[in-house]
Structure formats: structure tokens, C-alpha cells
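In keeping with the milestone schedule agreed at the kick-off meeting, the structural modelling team has produced records for the first pair of proteins. Each record is given below as a sequence line and a C-alpha cell line. The laboratory manager (R.T.) confirmed that both were archived under the project's standard naming scheme.
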Amino acid sequence: MSESVADASSAVSRDEVEKLFIDIWQNILDVEVGPDDDVFDLGGYSLLVVEAVAQARKAGVRVKVLDVFEHPTPAKLAGFLAPADEAPARDPAPLGDLVARTWRTSAAPWDAGAPPALVPLVPDGQGEPLFCVHVGTGHVRFFTPIAETLRAGRPVYGFEMPGIKAAVRPFLTIAEIAEQYLRELRTVQPQGPYHLTGFCSGALIAFEMAQRLRAAGQDVHTLVLAGPPVPELDPGLGLNDLFQYLLGTLRSRFGLGGPADVPEVVRKLTDLTWFEEELRPEELYRRTVLWAAILFAQEHYDPRPYDGPVTVCMYGNQDVTAYWRDRVPQADVIRLEAVTTLGLLQEQRFGEVLRLLLA
């Protein structure tokens, strides 16, 4: 599936590459690793693959994240990355230029024909609306039934990536996304006070929107960050790298090995509400490009200190409280037991907090 990366330096032999990855994985996993050991059977997972790739690149070996998922033993990976006269024949990769093709064949997100990002979730109600920003896959409509119970009688609007509904390429920075979403927000509510929440990657977008509203002299009464992430990947990874990282995640976690697996993978993803139920299987790869773009924006966003009221709801397994307290020292930080975004939004405590703030 991945594009050939056998352009590793010809000065590096197959045996040297194999030993390098044995050493890297032994250091990362803290276990004995043999040439034919599958690193995922030994405890490897997506973020550790990123770390292994970063270490290999520092050692002068050009390797991509998806290569590790597709060649999970040191011997197989060395055979793939070895000089051409040693490496086995490889099939061309149909996805190798998908990111570039998406940019060449898609409209800009500010084009007049692009679908709006702002969509009504529960449009009836009284008072200022609650505005919700999508998860990292760009999807927000899953929140509609939850919003019915949390909105305290207010209307609820959501932001979804325009590329969900049409061939529209994404922005690559949180700042650009926030500015575009604010333009649409003001068509519904020109003046504050404002009520904002964002989910996972969308929490960063909501945070930046609040920054800009306050800088414009507006009152942001409610800002709830639901499971905001922190940078944890190599900032040197480009959009292609992150696309392959996500494909690798879909491969290892959901069994995406090729086109025949796509319908079942889509079913699993929609069951988790990572994507909307209407997602057509043939759209999975293009939508993963959009997902990679949000991940790129997330990993390169450095939140400025914020002096307004804010509530940060963290997953039970997140160890990022200090990160957000440094940037928002006055934040009310609440740790919930959930381990997924949907689970967090469904927790009773989250509902109590949001209803209280909106009331």
C-alpha cells in the first residue's frame, strides 16, 4: 500500500538496517527483540511507531510510518528498505499520491461553492446558541442526540469540515480554521456573549476561536474543552507522513489491509461515531486525508495563554493536566473516567457541567 521508500542511503546495508530496528525497538519496548519478531505482538502501537521512525531517521534511514505497519518485523522492514539490488520486488502503491491528488482536484474551503461548515444541530430554543466544533475526523452531527439533553433550552449549532459534503480541501492550521468558522458563526450571532465547546481536536479550534473573540472585545461566557489533545508526534512529520500514520492505525486496529476490507472498516468506524453513518466506503481514503490535515494542524498548534473562564474536561487516561494549567492557569480542570470522546460527552458529570454553565 505504501509508496516505496527504498531510497534509503545505499551506504546502509540490509543487515545494518535490521540491527538498527532491533536496537530501536528493544530500547522503546524494553524487551528482547529478534529479527523475526512482530513488534506489535511485543506491545508496539501507533505512537511508538512514530518514535521508532523518528529514531531511524536520525540514524540516516529514510522510512515512513506506514512502512513499519506493513513490515512489522525488523527483518521484513530491512528487506523493504535495503538497497535496490538486495530488496525484493514491490508493487506500486495506489495511495502514494492521494494527498497531492486531493489538493489538485478539490476546491478551496473559502470558495463560494464550498458547503458551509456551520450546521444546525438543534435549531429551536431560547437565548444565545451553543456552538460545537467537530472531532478530528471532521464529524459533528453525532452530538445532536446528546445536545438535546445538555443544551439548557438553547439552540445548538455545530461546525463540520466542509470536505465532508464535497470535494473541498482542508485548512492546515488551527488559526485558519478558527477564522473561517468565526466568519460563519457571526452570521448567526454577531455579538456575544458566546458559548463554545469543542471535542478532541475541535477543542483546540474552539479555544482559538475564543481567543480571537476576546481579542475583538467580545464576551465568551462559556468555553468547554472536551478532551483537548496535546502535541505528541514528531513535529517534523508532513501531511503524507500523517496520512500514512492514520492508515497504519486503521490497519493495526481495524484490519484495513486493502480495498476488500474497506466496507467492514467503515462499519466499525461509524459504530464508534468516528465518521458519520452516511460515509460511503469509497470515500474512506479521501476522508482520511482530511483527518490527517486536522492532525497536522493539531500537532503544530501552540495555544497562547488565555485569561477567560474555561473548563477543561480530560479523559481518565490523559496525563496532560499540567500542559493546560500552564496555558490556562485559572481553568477548571475535570478528569472523567471515559477513554473515548463519545464516552466523555455521554458522562453524567460532563452533562452537569455544561448544563450549569449554559443555565
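The second protein of the pair:
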Amino acid sequence: MRLAKALILALALPCAALAAERNDLQSCYTRNGLADIKPAGTGRELVVIIDQTIPMPEDLQRSSWGQIDRFVQPGDRVRLYTFSAFLPGEYQRLVYAGELDMPLQGEVRDDVNMRKLRGLDQCLATQKKAFQAGFGGLFVKGLREARQDIPKSEIMNTLRRVGEDMGKEQGVQERVVYLISDMLEHSDYTSFYAANQIKQLDVASELKLAQSKGLYADLQGARVYVSGAGLVTDAVKHAYRSGKTMDALNNFWAQYLNASNATLEGFGTPSLSTDLR
């Protein structure tokens, strides 16, 4: 009975309040009874989005994890989404949301009880490994659950809804979005395919259509990096993609993101040649 009441109260809370409380990586300060002196984070957030409509090659999976592992530092927030299409059992999920702690420094540290300080330092020393195991495990799972038989890929709608989540967060001054996707929209709004091939995009027309359908997002000034652009499933004819085709795809997403309060900083076709910054 108590559990049922607790669930009802939780469901009655505003979505923003629930999101603010989620931290899948338990704070070392909370664990050691020092939550009242926890330092503020870096204000940075990394948002990783996995498109599960296209299986990624093993080497791309490894390089993508390397990008994330190099970028994330103490005090950063990290979120992980997966998406495919609105089919039974297939939908957008926030599978991880966590924040790493900053170390305790200065006079505040000198005033902490030695036993608690020792527990805090031990926890902080292993927190990155806990992040790697928790986030990393879900990241690999998300990539390996990708299926090429899913008929739709709603990339723009996903970015719009991720942007809505971003708008509810507080305390974030710097955002990086890492999108692992073929970037080939194939939805009821529009399709980047024609006759079972990647089509040569009319960028201006596609941007106008996205605007008319309300598909622009608000990504809160994020810097966006992409891995996997242009990858195709076995069902697509002519696996070769010309430079002209890929340039148009890059151009579309650069302009779409600019109109969505973001900037495209790296567009891996398919491998990303620059580090997340």
C-alpha cells in the first residue's frame, strides 16, 4: 500500500522535477554524508544519442566510445538517449542521466572529518570507472541492439524532443551533442531515400519542409558532432555515396542545426576525424 502511494506521488510530480533529481551515478558526497558541501559542477553536459535503425561497424563503435571517454571529465553531466521509430517496443528512451563529482579543494576540505574525507577520496578515485561501467555498458547495449529492419528513422523529431528535455534542465552553460546515426531521415514527414537509394537532396526544399512541419529543435546552443553519416543497410542499392550526395547531406544538417540553435562542429562520414570539444 505504501509503495502504491509513493508511486502515485511520484507520478504527480512535474516532469522537470523528476528529471532534475535523476542521477544514475550516485554522488560521492551524498554517499559520505557531505552533500551540503558538494562543489558545483563544470556546467558542461554531453548528450549522446544513438540511432538504433542502423547497425554500426565494430570499429566505429570503438572509436565512438573513445570520443566519449576522452571528453568526459569530473563535474560533467552526461545523458544517453536511444531512438528508432514509434513501433511496438521501439521508441525514444533516456537510458542514462548522471553527473560526475568535482574534487573537494581548499579550506573546505581542511574542515572535513578525516573518516568522511577518506571515504570521499576513495569514492572519487573510482567514480570514473563506475561511470565507464554504468554508462559504457548501456552505450554498448544501445549500439548492439540496433536493427536494420526498422522501416522508419525519425531523426529530426528526436532532436526536437531532446531539445525539449534540455530546456527543462538548470545549471548547464555548455552543451555538446554526440549523434551516432546515418543521418538519413526516413519518416512520415520526409525521406532522404528514393527508389531504395539515397537521393540527391534539394537542401532548400527539405529545410522549408522541416520548417513547415515544425521539426526544428531548440538545442540550447549545443555543439553537435556526428558519427556514422551516410551508412546504409543491406537493403539499400548502390552502397557507394558520391561526394556530391554527402556534401548535400552535410549541408542540410548544418543548416538545420543552425536553425535549431546549435552548430555542426563535426560530421563523420562515417568516422569522426576530430575529437569532441
